[in-house]
Amino acid sequence: MVTQMDIANRLKLSRATVSRALNGENVSEKTKQMVLAEAEKLGYIPNVAATALAQKNDKLIYAFIIATIDEGYGEDTYNGIIDAINLWQGYHLKVEIVFTDINLKGNQAKTQIEQFKNVLQNKQVDGVIFSALSQENMDYVSRECLARKIPLMTLDMIYKDPSLCHAGPEYFELGTYTAAYLASLMRKEGRLLILYYDEGYDLSKERMRGFFHKLKEYPNIEKKVVTIENTSSKIYNQKLEKYFFEYNPRAIYAPYRAEHIGSFLKRNKLGGKVNLISTGINKKVEEYLYDGTIDGIVSTKPYFLGAFIMNNFFKYFYRSKEVLRGNIDVSCDIYIKEIYKRYDKIF
Fold this sequence. Notes:
Blueprint: H1 4-11, H2 15-22, H3 29-42, H4 48-54, E1 59-67, H5 71-87, E2 93-101, H6 109-122, E3 127-130, H7 135-148, E4 152-155, E5 165-168, H8 171-185, E6 190-196, H9 202-215, E7 221-227, H10 233-247, E8 251-253, H11 258-267, E9 275-278, H12 283-291, E10 296-299, H13 302-318, E11 326-329, E12 333-335
Parallel strand pairs: 1-2, 1-3, 3-4, 4-5, 5-11, 6-7, 6-8, 8-9, 9-10
Antiparallel strand pairs: 10-12
Helix pairs in contact: 1-2, 1-3, 2-3, 5-13, 8-9
């Protein structure tokens, strides 16, 4: 292994000078370029552990995460980020999570950008993970991070900057996968009751656009779309009591809160008799998956997304040659009882 002393001996410099040049500290530009060129020529690989442990200042990453209607999503993303941070203890890499709760009334895009501005104005920021609620938010955050030379990576959204690292699924495709899986459970025929809630964000609209687009391929599936005002169990029960027995569907789908539908099916002793899948994960959804009330879960694996993007930030600071850039399409997985695991450990 090539050491700093090897470079120093080749250039007839002190090891301290070589160290300062490699770290960009207090040397002339000529000396710095000479040391960097020799280091590359010899294949020098920094001892990132020693470098990190020697640093006096923490690298602080702010992760702006969306807390969604399916409460397990934000929790799983958070856990993935935290597990990645815990793995690299000793490297002075820290993270602060900022949740934007879209369960609150009104469009929260403005709230999200105010959260971001407040952090920039009042905190040390060495890196940003951002999941944008609007194109305007993405554009603003990109401009500010570029101007301040703050590294930025984005997570699980439809607004992408090709110059950044983005990890997440294509939401239109996620919708098509959901429809195809549900159609297969229905054997491509029968009545489908859809409880549709529009929370006003493009991400979920894109998923539903893919869902309805794919359903066109199954002419023997008859669908009835019922709009719901909110995602409370009360509203779900009211709509199901009104439409289920009248329509007598073979399957039910809702983009959110499949556990409310599961509760209705169990209460009416219909569990296992009506096809139901979930696109969100929480403890109740898991319970209904294991007892057969819910047939499966179409998931974007939020734990994996959080862990991946945080691990990539570690590489950015300490293993720059390994950092991934561009769009990392993680697609989605379909889980059934026999293969479902709550977390996919990736380290």
